Amino acid sequence: MRVTEHFKQADGQTLISFEVLPPLKGGSMQAIFDTLDPLMEFKPPFIDVTYHREEYVYKKRASGYYEKTAIRKRPGTVGICAAIMHRYGVDAVPHLLCGGFTKQDTENALIDLAFLDVQNVLALRGDARKFEGRFIPEEDGHNYACELVGQIVDMNDGKYLDDLIKGEHASKTDFCIGVAGYPEKHFEAANLEHDLRYVKQKVEAGADYIVTQMFFDNQKYFDYVDACRKVGINVPIVPGLKPLTKLYQLNSIPRLFHIDLPDDLVREISQAKSSDARTQVGIEWCAAQSKELKERDVPCLHYYTMGDSSTIQSIAEQVA
Ligand code: FAD
């Protein structure tokens, strides 16, 4: 079922959903099941699976020279989606990137997904590769997520890249399309207003809903939703949530996700006496965020699990 149909059927009730990462190459599907099994009691209507494009690494050879090699550390997104749908009977939402994909690759990926009965995708641009200063699309790939949304919409209309595929040979897909939004703006955008113009472009291109980057201060989400509504973005905006439970995350989260952390949270995490105490601070903070968001009738609380089901479980138990 389409994600937006789940929102409609919930009839104002706040749903709970999760995002998982494919295991590192060499890992097994069991790692995903171990993360998700304890979370199924919260009846997620859908589960997102992230996509990880290839990265360049430099390997030292016997000659002393370094060789540049492309590797994919976390392959398996499509297979994991199929396995999740098979095991739990819930909808899976694969993340689909512009980065690393030609338009043909995208079309083929969408055909695979449609054949697997996957009805939802989160359409993203992806980041620049390490060692590249800016995002570089494939030749004949998409520059921005809005273009990817456009290609998915075309396939929903039965339009394929090869215009000889038409009539009875051009079956229409029926993808519900999610896109990303950034309450603290995307780090490359000149300012929030500018960023919102492009979010609106994604919605006008056919995106059905937005999932936000994580945030630790709900006011940022409320302000973002207000700003979206003011510029005419009227699709559901799902808050993305992650508990901060480790000391090193005080630096890594702002650096990786380009967001600020509230001073109270920084102080509480810094002053906690043990790793268990820090975990508890993170759980309480995220549970308080979740409760307030639920009181304000958000369509869904979307948790970034990052393989840590016990922390997410403790939070979800407080809000379910
Ligand atoms: P876009 O919407 O294309 O925007 C990128 C930048 O370009 C923004 O600054 C925007 O303001 C600007 N822009 C947009 N359109 C235009 C235009 N037409 N002209 C000029 N400027 C424009 N990354 C992964 O690699 N794998 C994942 O699975 C993944 N999942 C994510 C899930 C969520 C919920 C979020 C919030 C992010 C996720 N990301 C993931 C990270 C994402 O790929 C990066 O944040 C990326 O830098 C931007 O992606 P986007 O889809 O928001 O890009």
Features:
320 residues, TIM Barrel, nine-stranded parallel beta sheet, 11 strands, binds flavin-adenine dinucleotide, FAD binding, oxidoreductase, FAD-linked_oxidoreductase-like, Methylenetetrahydrofolate reductase
Structure commentary:
This protein has one domain (3-319): TIM Barrel (Alpha-Beta Barrel). With 320 residues, the protein is an alpha/beta fold. The mean pLDDT is 97. It has 11 helices and 11 strands. It has a 9-stranded parallel β-sheet with strand order 9-8-7-6-5-2-1-11-10, with helices on both faces. It has a two-stranded antiparallel sheet with strand order 3-4. The relative contact order is 0.14. The structure holds flavin-adenine dinucleotide (FAD). The site of flavin-adenine dinucleotide (FAD) has 22 residues, from strand 5, helix 5 and helix 6. Its cofactor is FAD. Pathway: Amino-acid biosynthesis; L-methionine biosynthesis via de novo pathway; One-carbon metabolism; tetrahydrofolate interconversion.
